[in-house]
Design a protein that fits this description.
CATH architecture of the largest domain: 3-Layer(aba) Sandwich
Number of helices: 10
Radius of gyration: 21 Å
Distance between the termini: 41 Å
Oligomer: single chain
CATH superfamily of the largest domain: P-loop containing nucleotide triphosphate hydrolases
Strand order of the largest sheet: 6-7-8-3-9-10
Helix content: 25-40%
CATH topology of the largest domain: Rossmann fold
CATH class of the largest domain: Alpha Beta
Largest sheet: 6 strands, mixed
Number of strands: 13
Number of domains: 2
Mean pLDDT: 90
Low-confidence stretches: none
Shape: globular
Length: 283
C-alpha cells in the first residue's frame, strides 16, 4: 500500500534546537494528529514536508516520491492550511478565486470551491482584511480542498476558533478521507478535536518522536488512578508513566498491562497522556 508520508532519519538543526532523527510512516487514507508542546518541532516538521525548509540529514517521501523530485504538477497533490491566510488583504473572494484558478489550472475544482464557500457562508463583497480569524481559516481550507490534493497538511489551523467552526472543520476532514487516497496530517493543541477524528496520534517532544500509535490502542494502554503514597509504593515503577501529587495522595497515569487486572483505572484522554509523559520525562 502506498504511504502518504515516509520520513527516514530526518534531522534539522535550528540554533540550539535539533529535530530528530525522526522515522515516521503515515499510511494513506487516515487522519494523523501530530501533538507536542510549544517548540517541540511540529511546525518545523511540516515546513520540511512542504520543502519550505531543507533537512540536514534524512529522506522525505510524500505519496511515494522524494520531495526533491517533485514537479510543479506533483506539488498540486499536496495542500496545506496554516494558522493564518497568507494572501494580500485587499483581495476579495473573487480575486482569490481567480488567482487560484490560474495557479492550479486544470486541477482547480470550481464546484468544490463554490460549495465550500457557500457552506461556510463566506462574504463575496468583503476584502480579506475584514474577515474574522475563523473566516480566514475557512477560506484557507476551501482553497486547500479545491485542487484535488491527496495529502492535506494542517499546522495549528483551528487554534483560536470557536467550537462551532472547529466542529464544522472536523466534519469536512472526515468527509475528505472517505476517499481512501486522501490523507490528513494535522498538528493541533486542541487535543479533544483529535480525539474525535484522528486514526493515529504521533507525539513529538523536544524534537524527538516518542511514538506513533493508533488512537484507540493508545488510549487503551493507559489509565488514571488516585492513590495513597502507600498504594503507590506497592506498584511496579515501570507501570508509572507520570504522577501529580494532591492533598489526599497522588494522581498517577499507569500502564494497564503492568498493574493487577482488578486494579480500578479511569479512562485517559490524549491530553492527559501528553501531560503525564512530559512530566515523566522531566523527572
Amino acid at each position: 500500500m502506498l504511504n502518504a508520508i515516509e520520513l527516514r532519519g530526518l534531522k534539522k538543526r535550528l540554533g540550539n534546537f535539533v529535530l530528530g532523527p525522526i522515522d515516521l510512516t503515515v499510511p494513506r487514507g487516515c487522519i494523523v494528529g501530530y501533538i507536542g508542546e510549544n517548540g517541540a518541532g511540529k511546525s518545523t516538521t511540516i515546513k520540511l514536508l512542504l520543502h519550505l525548509m531543507f533537512p540536514d540529514e534524512g529522506e522525505i517521501r510524500l505519496l511515494g516520491k522524494d520531495v526533491q523530485e517533485f514537479t510543479p504538477q506533483m506539488k498540486k497533490d499536496i495542500a496545506y492550511v496554516f494558522d493564518d491566510l497568507y494572501l494580500p488583504e485587499d483581495m476579495t473572494l473573487k480575486n482569490v478565486h481567480n488567482f487560484h484558478q490560474k495557479l492550479y489550472g486544470q486541477a482547480w475544482q470550481d464546484k468544490t470551491f463554490s460549495d465550500l464557500v457557500a457552506r461556510f457562508n463566506l462574504p463575496d463583497s468583503k476584502s480579506i482584511k475584514h474577515f474574522s480569524r475563523g473566516m480566514k481559516m475557512q477560506l484557507g481550507l476551501a482553497l486547500a480542498l479545491s485542487h484535488g490534493a491527496r495529502l492535506l497538511l494542517l499546522d495549528e489551523a483551528t487554534s483560536g476558533l470557536d467550537p462551532v467552526i472547529r466542529d464544522d472543520v472536523l466534519d469536512i476532514l472526515l468527509d475528505y478521507i472517505q476517499n481512501e487516497n486522501h490523507t490528513v496530517f494535522v498538528s493541533s493543541h486542541i487535543l479533544s478535536d483529535l480525539e474525535k477524528v484522528a486514526d493515529y496520534i504521533a507525539f513529538i517532544h523536544k524534537g524527538q518522536l516518542l511514538f506513533m500509535e493508533t488512537k484507540d490502542d493508545l488510549m487503551n494502554q493507559y489509565g488514571i488512578a488516585s492513590l495513597s503514597e502507600k498504594q503507590l509504593e506497592e506498584l511496579d515503577d515501570k507501570a508509572i508513566v507520570g504522577k501529580r501529587p494532591h492533598k489526599f495522595g497522588v494522581e498517577v497515569m499507569l500502564k494497564r498491562e503492568l498493574v493487577p487486572s482488578d486494579f480500578e483505572l479511569e479512562k485517559v484522554s490524549i491530553e492527559e497522556i501528553m501531560v503525564y509523559m512530559i512530566k515523566g520525562k522531566r523527572k
